[in-house]
Amino acid sequence: xxxxxxxxxxxxxxxxxxxxxxxxxxxxxxxxxxxxxxxxxxxxxxxxxxxxxxxxxxxxxxxxxxxxxxxxxxxxxxxxxxxxxxxxxxxxxxxxxxxxxxxxxxxxxxxxxxxxxxxxxxxxxxxxxxxxxxxxxxxxxxxxxxxxxxxxxxxxxxxxxxxxxxxxxxxxxxxxxxxxxxxxxxxxxxxxxxxxxxxxxxxxxxxxxxxxxxxxxxxxxxxxxxxxxxxxxxxxxxxxxxxxxxxxxxxxxxxxxxxxxxxxxxxxxxxxxxxxxxxxxxxxxxx
Length: 287
Hints:
About 30% of the residues lie in helices and about 15% in strands.
C-alpha cells in the first residue's frame, strides 16, 4: 500500500513526544541510517550518508534541544537531561588529492590506515581502523606551538548556528577572506584569548595543558597561525568537521615530556570555557 493511501485510510502517525517528532523528521530528510533504541528513550545514532545529512540533523537538534555527540569518542549519554544524537562518521570516508602536490582531502570517516598508505607519516603508528574524526578529537602531545606537526592545514567545519566555514592558515600567505559573519566575530575573540595571561601561562609550559589547542594561534617560527589546528583534541565539542586538508606531518609524542603543573589547571579551564563559548554558544556539541 502506498504511504499516501495508508495515511488516508488510517491517519498519519502523530508523534507522541517532541523526541518522536524529532526522529520522524530526521528520518524523512536523512539518507543515512538512523537507529534509536526504545529501551533508551532520547538516544539515537545517525550514520550520515552525505554531508547534508549532518546539516539537516544540526538544524533539527537546535530546534528540539537535542545534543550532538561524536560517536565512539565522546562519553556523554545525556547532558543535563537533554536527548542525544550520536553521529557515526564511518560512511563519510572519501579520500581525494588536494589542490597541491602532497596534499589530501579527507572526510571524517576516513580510516587512518588509508591515510598512512597515502604517505601521511603522522598516521603511520596510529590504529589503522580508527577514523580521522576520532584522531582529530583526541588529545595529542605536540609541544606548545608545534601543532603544525599534525599536518592539518585546513578544515571545513559546521558550527552550531549552521555556519559552514573553511578554517586554515591565517597570515600573510593566506589571503582568502572569512566568508561568514559568525567566523568574522569568532576569529577576533580567539586572538584576544591567545593574548591573555591565561594563554601566556599555558604556552610557557613544556606541555600544553588546555583541551583546545589555542597555541595554534601562537606557533613557533617558522610556522604560521592556523585556525584549523585549534581543533586538535577538541573532543567533538567545538564543531562538526566535514573535511580536512592534510599534508604529511610527524607522529605526536605518546605523552607530554613533562605533565603540566597543578597551578595551570585554573588558566587551562578558563581558556576551555571561553573557547567553547566562542565556538558553540548554543551548547549544541557535547564533549
